[in-house]
Design goal:
Shape: globular
Order of helices and strands: HHEHEEHEH
Largest sheet: 2 strands, parallel
Strand order of the largest sheet: 1-4
Number of helices: 5
Oligomer: single chain
Number of domains: 1
Distance between the termini: 24 Å
Structural class: alpha+beta
Strand content: 5-15%
Helix content: 25-40%
Radius of gyration: 14 Å
Length: 96
């Protein structure tokens, strides 16, 4: 589930629950979680390559209109400073 859609409603209001967090507690994950978690991984393990995959990275793999900020944002690959982006389910790509 995309972190922004999971956190906000279509009216840009905060959701009161999070089905993907322990105890259904809302607000546990940051906005644009892919960017935040990639940056934290890069800080902790500087020499380890970070590869993005999944719905959030796939939807934002190119420049895109960001509904939440009402701007055109760059690719998540550029903004996150990850090393590679796999379209779709990243885990399945590794098996092939």
């Amino acid at each position: 589930m995309d972190s922004m859609i999971n956190r906000y409603t279509a009216d840009r209001k905060l959701r009161h629950d999070d089905a993907y967090t322990a105890g259904n507690v809302a607000g546990k994950r940051p906005d644009r979680a892919t960017l935040v978690y990639t940056q934290r991984c890069k800080e902790a393990w500087k020499d380890v390559p970070v590869i993005l995959g999944g719905i959030e990275a796939s939807l934002r793999r190119t420049a895109h209109y960001d509904y939440w900020s009402d701007t055109v944002r760059r690719s998540v690959l550029v903004d996150s400073k990850a090393d590679m982006l796999m379209f779709g389910n990243g885990e399945r790509r590794w098996l092939k």
